[in-house]
Amino acid sequence: MNVRIWNIPESCSEQDVRDFLQRELGHYAKEIAVYDAGTPTVYATVELNAEQPYIADVIAQQLHGKHLAGVALQASAAPFGEEPDAPRASGN
After folding, report:
1. Which residues pair with 68 in a beta bridge?
2. Rounded to an integer, what distance in angstroms lies between the CA atom of residue 60 and that of residue 38?
3. What single-letter DSSP state applies at residue 49?
4. What is the C-alpha to C-alpha distance for residues 36 and 76, in angstroms, rounded to an integer?
5. CATH for the stretch 2-78
């Protein structure tokens, strides 16, 4: 299962995003990928180290609204292997 995170401030580096997500998710984060860092369309996906689909939903709910560099993140769960286009934030 994957979690997609967007509305990430473009001022955050790829490492900033990785560090934040690793801190927040701990052992649940199997792999973290950050795309388009430094641009208004930056987003991240996290492959979870969990088999149960509901874990991704719970993690997405926990991440949704957390603040990174003063900006509330948005997150949603996506089935493993599915990479839909990340919704774009209007205020970023």
Report:
1. 71
2. 23
3. S
4. 18
5. 3.30.70.330
Per-residue tens of pLDDT for the chain, all 92 residues: 899 999 999 999 999 999 999 999 999 999 999 999 999 999 999 999 988 879 999 999 999 999 999 999 999 997 645 554 545 444 44
Using an 8 Å Cβ cutoff, are 60 and 3 in contact? yes
What's the whole-model pTM score?
0.82
Going from the C-alpha of 15 to that of each of 52, 58, 61, 81, the distances in angstroms are 28, 24, 23, 24
Alpha carbons 76 and 85: distance in angstroms, whole number: 12
Tokens of 85: 């286009």
Residue boundaries of the structural domains of the chain: 2-78
